Amino acid sequence: TMRGKLRDHGLASIAISAHMDSGMPDAADMLARRIRFAAGIDARYVITNSTTVDRRSNLERVLKANLPMAEQIGIIIALENPGNGPTNLMCDGKSGAAIVAEFNSPNLRLNYDTSNALTCTEGKVRPEVDLDYALPQTCHVHLKDALRENGRWRYVAIGQGEIDYNILLSKLKPHSAIPMTLELPLRLNRLFHADPERYPDLPSINAITTAIRTSWNCVAQAIGELKQI
Hints:
six-stranded parallel beta sheet; alpha/beta; four-stranded antiparallel beta sheet; single chain
């Protein structure tokens, strides 16, 4: 089984990335499969997207259909604020937390993506401030950073973009029960008001390891409880 293979390699999964449009007609069955898969590998969080504004009612049906199973087997559905698209129902932590709060379920929470709040709003929302609204409903955090260059967003190591991670991480530090993930989509970039694109060339192993080290050390310095590498 996948659970056995993970254990054989000394690995474990806290969360799975199961992104989909949860307002699509067949989304209820799709989400159910993802919940069962997460339970099968002992992951606790299923991270996925909500939907567009016009499909909100279907999102509600999909979540109501799946929350009883999630509650029964101990899975938390974590809706993530996306990084682009003006028609998205959740463009930042404030709107995402408000939607999650309506369900009043401990098994439906928010996966707050720091950079997505910045890029989805083309820089109008500051994640350092938006986090205050998101935190009451947040169960998991993606740490990501981006820079504006010539009308596009370029994703960079944590601490090398526009987000003030000293401020943001100081707000997360008291919430040690919330897992944080370093997300480094180094090959992606995005024109304003457009979908993400990939650079034609893969980043080198050196570029990847440097970005991981830089990001880890940024978080370690801000949190003060981790060893730098």
